[in-house]
Amino acid sequence: MRALLVTKHGSVNDLEFTDSYPAPTAGPGDVVLRVRATSLNRHDLFTLRGMPGITLDLPVVPGLDVAGEIVQLGDDVSGWSVGDRAVVFPLDDRFGLVGETRDGGLAEFIAIPATQLIAIPSAVTFAQAAALPVAYGTAQRMIVDKGTVAAGDTVLVLGASGGVGTAAVVLAKSLGARVAAAVGSEEKRQALLAAGADWAVNTSEEDVFSWARKTFGKPSRTSESTGVDVVVNFTGGSTWNPTLRIVRRGGRILVCGATDGFDPQEDLRYVWTFELQIIGSNGFTRDGVESLLAQVAGGNLAPVIHSVSGLESARGAFADLDERRIIGKVVVTQDGETR
């Protein structure tokens, strides 16, 4: 079968496309899905490059987020039929992470335990379903499940053009918040406004932290009326200390990653003086993915999809992700068509 492979750790140029990878069969408790759509995440780049202290068996087919239709049932599988549409919950306690410790979605077929399947509602396309589990699931847990954003809040999302960033913008808006998106180009600024952000700041031209103080006021030690209610900061690094200076008294900083560095300079005086709440969130849940599918099916949520490419062009999709050229999610289907 056709597949894109990580055969050695390296750059996007080291990805290998083949049309002769062994097709999987369904073992006991497994199903085989015909892959209809896979979305890429930055974790796929980590798998490609290699991660300190983690040894993977190579080759491996990358792709955490997978949606498709069942073509084969293994023994002891109940509740599913050939032809059913399903999205894969990427993490399993026994087998680890799809696309890392076992083959993922950048192939024509994937074998997966039936327990990891979630039914796709008829109103949801394969591309939409594949966009949800990791990025939107992460934002769902951080913003919705933890109850960190409420109607009327002002929310600033840093790094708002990627998968988790656009998801955070869309979900915060769905809760009735007023949302500002910080992005790195004018094209991305316009795209985030089109996706529903109330404000968008091009950080290549304007300092977003100065903008936030000017727009929402300097935080006060005696009042909760000035400053940003919530900042979504999964960048860390040089953005961390300025973030502490724009959040209102009693406000919240949400953290689900550290793409710009995990050990930033810290000024604890702001944490205690303004009684800041720093709330960590790690990963995604099955309930969250099911909720997101229902929201999409009901017309209440539309995942932002940057592009859809064919499997043989997936190396280019990886390059777009690596160079941060995307706005939202990049999706790979077998033939480049969205269904």
Give a structural overview.
The protein contains 10 helices and 17 strands. Helix 10 (314-322) links the parallel strand 16 (305-310) and strand 17. With 339 residues, it is α/β, with parallel strands linked by helices. It is elongated, with a radius of gyration of 21 Å. Strands 3, 4, 5, 8, 9, 16 and 17 form a 7-stranded mixed beta sheet that branches. The longest helix has 14 residues, at 132-145.
Strand fraction band?
25-35%
Termini distance? 21 Å
Shape: elongated
User: Which stretches are low in confidence, meaning pLDDT under 50 for 5 or more residues running?
Assistant: none
The overall pLDDT, averaged over residues, is 95
Structural class: alpha/beta
- The portion of residues assigned to helices is 25-40%
Rg to the nearest angstrom? 21 Å
User: Number of helical segments?
Assistant: 10
Q: What multimeric state do the chains show? A: single chain
How many β strands by DSSP?
Answer: 17
The helix/strand order is EEEHEEEEEEHHEHEHEHEHEHEHEHE
Query: Could you give a short account of the major beta sheet?
Result: 7 strands, mixed
Main attributes of the structure:
339 residues; alpha/beta; 7-stranded mixed beta sheet; 6-stranded parallel beta sheet; 10 helices
